[in-house]
User: What shape does this take?
Amino acid sequence: MGVMTFLIGLLADLISFNRQLTEGTLLRIKKMGVEIKDLHSKIDLLQNQTSGDNKRDVNKK
Assistant: This one.
């Protein structure tokens, strides 16, 4: 009976640790998604600024 209690406790600890790993991974994935969105918006902004500068240069010539 003691062995079964020990094994059930061990299984519960393993399930808890697995859940913590999964939650941590999900959090990191969400952060990466936000960072990627920020990078895309910065790239779009830079491209718009660059294309605007090119149009101004063409108009000056």
Remarks:
- Residues 2-60 form the longest helix (59 residues).
- The chain is about 95% helix and 0% strand.
- The helical segments are 2-60.
